[in-house]
């Protein structure tokens, strides 16, 4: 519907215009009539019509004055003038002022009026379509600029190549028009705590909308600050670079707390805000982000009652040192856990889980590294990879806190214990005893006769029965036990191949090499070197 206002000082003309065409049937909403320009302006101010049909000669305010007022006040209505013979100069002046067209009162027919109304409404629609397209284009350009800015900042903070080629990054930033006002900056690293829980229990369930809402609320908190950059690292991690602009470092903790309270109050979302305690120059921002990022990760180890202030903000170099110092103890602990799992010592295995998680918290092990280690340990113990168990391991990897990881790890151990017990229940007692004997004595020389004597059975019959139930001959089974144990021991950075061979009951290191390569497709030394490389986790 296009809104229409009729303006004329003659009541008979106003009545005739109102009834000349079926307005609504042709998608026009007749707002009413006015007897002069002054009365018309009051309606225009209130209703914002799309089309004004006005007489030129009227008391108080004539048509030309009305058109001038409309244009001066930037009303967007289209104007059609009504004229009589002899008013040519006034019509020409009206067209100069911006009228769309004119109609002669004395010759006016309903078809002429309807045709002109349709022509004007088509012009309005085309203008609106152009405006919609322009708005969409401006929005798309703004979004593209925003994405470009965000990707550049994200690249600088998290991409090592960008840090190593600072000059190239600065050129790209200059082309994008970012960073000129950020000479000295403080940094706030915002992380949504327990993200999956926040999506489930928070006020907003849509992930995209949650990111958008967090940005809007933080922008409101920062509204009094002239210069800052908002950087979205992923769906739950955000960075604010706050230019100094005369603000003191004492304001930064207050600002961080304000952000936390605002997001909790309006979105029912808990966030960790890690902040730098001073303003620093551009070359230091990547290092500052590393400090904030690592500190934020340590929330993984916190109970709900703990506060962020209990955990210090570490320098990146300190974090690397902690990781190097703990790599050996991690290898030893995981080896012990695999041995417990293989031997069915579930009580010691769960106690080892508690010990490892406590040590990880004390040594500030990066949570993702800890979760990878937990999953690797379970895979080393040959947890049956059914769909249910794969889901168990996935939940371990996705744990959002140390306490979730502990619970998920316990569940995986229970599943492993249940599977092992089911396997044992299906085996004959003599086969179970034979396997148990090999697991307990693999480090010594073992013969088929020794195993047969242990289970009190004829060697030939035992061999045939063992192959029937396990699919392997006993010596191959013993070799597999030794190789799996050797694989665990070789993860220790201090272990020597020759010593590991002796520990698993193989005195000849050359024979050990051949068996290891046959079992795993690579030499012990190559495997050890690979594990050593993987144990050094780069700081991101």
Structure overview:
- With 540 residues, this protein is of the alpha/beta class.
- It contains 23 helices and 10 strands.
- Strands 2-1-3-4-5 form a 5-stranded parallel beta sheet, sandwiched between helices.
- β4, α4 and β5 (101-104) form a beta-alpha-beta unit.
- α12 packs antiparallel against α13 and α12 runs parallel beside α14 (367-380).
- The chain is elongated and about 130 Å long.
- Residues 305-326 and 535-540 have low confidence and may be disordered.
Mean pLDDT over all positions: 83
Distance between the termini: 59 Å
What's the main sheet like?
A: 5 strands, parallel
The outline comes out as elongated
Oligomeric category: single chain
Structural class of the helix and strand makeup? alpha/beta
Which sequence of strands runs across the widest sheet? 2-1-3-4-5
Radius of gyration: 40 Å
Strand content: 5-15%
Indicate the low-confidence ranges by residue numbers: 305-326, 535-540
Protein name: Response regulator
InterPro entries: CheY-like_superfamily, Homeodomain-like_sf, HptR, HTH_AraC, HTH_AraC-typ_CS, Sig_transdc_resp-reg_receiver
Subcellular location: Cytoplasm
Modified residues (4-aspartylphosphate): 55
């Amino acid at each position: 519907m296009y809104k229409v206002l009729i303006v004329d000082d003659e009541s008979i003309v106003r009545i005739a215009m109102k009834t000349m065409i079926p307005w609504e049937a042709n998608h026009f909403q007749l707002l009413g009539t006015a007897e002069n320009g002054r009365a018309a302006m009051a309606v225009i101010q209130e209703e914002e019509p799309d089309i004004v049909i006005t007489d030129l000669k009227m008391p108080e305010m004539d048509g030309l004055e009305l058109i001038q007022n409309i244009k001066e006040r930037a009303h967007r209505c289209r104007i059609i003038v009504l004229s009589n013979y002899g008013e040519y100069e006034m019509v020409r002046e009206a067209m100069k002022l911006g009228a769309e067209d004119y109609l002669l009162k004395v010759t006016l027919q309903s078809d002429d009026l309807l045709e002109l109304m349709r022509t004007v409404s088509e012009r309005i629609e085309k203008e609106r379509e152009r405006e919609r397209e322009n708005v969409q284009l401006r929005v798309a350009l703004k979004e593209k600029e925003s994405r470009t800015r965000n990707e550049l900042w994200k690249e600088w903070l998290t991409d090592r190549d960008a840090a190593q080629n600072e000059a190239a990054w600065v050129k790209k930033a200059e082309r994008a028009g970012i960073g000129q006002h950020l000479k000295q900056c403080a940094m706030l690293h915002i992380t949504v705590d327990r993200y999956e829980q926040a999506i489930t229990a928070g006020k907003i369930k849509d992930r995209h909308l949650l990111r958008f809402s967090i940005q809007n609320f933080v922008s409101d908190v920062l509204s009094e600050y002239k210069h800052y950059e908002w950087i979205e690292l992923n769906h739950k991690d955000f960075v604010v670079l706050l230019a100094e602009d005369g603000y003191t470092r004492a304001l930064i903790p207050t600002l961080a707390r304000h952000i936390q309270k605002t997001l909790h109050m309006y979105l029912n979302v808990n966030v960790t805000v890690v902040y730098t305690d001073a303003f620093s120059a551009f070359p230091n921002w990547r290092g500052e982000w590393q400090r904030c990022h690592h500190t934020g990760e340590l929330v993984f180890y916190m109970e709900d009652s703990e506060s962020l202030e209990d955990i210090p903000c570490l320098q990146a170099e300190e974090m690397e040192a902690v990781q190097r110092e703990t790599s050996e103890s991690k290898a030893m602990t995981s080896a012990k856990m695999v041995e417990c799992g293989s031997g069915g010592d579930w009580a010691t295995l769960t106690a080892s889980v508690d010990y490892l998680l406590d040590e990880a918290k004390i040594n500030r092990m990066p949570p993702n590294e800890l979760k990878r280690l937990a999953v690797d340990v379970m895979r080393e113990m040959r947890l049956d990879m059914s769909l249910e168990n794969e889901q168990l391991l996935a939940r371990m990897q996705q744990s959002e806190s140390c306490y979730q990881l502990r619970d998920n790890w316990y569940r995986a151990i229970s599943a492993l214990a249940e599977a092992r017990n089911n396997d044992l229940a299906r085996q004959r007692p003599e086969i179970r005893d034979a396997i148990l004997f090999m697991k307990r004595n693999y480090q010594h020389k073992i013969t088929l006769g020794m195993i047969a004597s242990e289970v009190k059975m004829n060697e030939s019959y035992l061999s045939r029965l063992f192959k029937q139930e396990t699919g392997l001959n006993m010596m191959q089974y013993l070799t597999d036990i030794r190789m799996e144990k050797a694989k665990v021991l070789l993860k220790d950075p201090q272990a020597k191949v020759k010593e590991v061979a002796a520990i698993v009951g193989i005195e000849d290191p050359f024979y050990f090499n051949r068996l290891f390569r046959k079992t795993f497709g690579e030499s012990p030394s190559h495997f050890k070197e690979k594990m050593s490389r993987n144990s050094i986790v780069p700081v991101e």
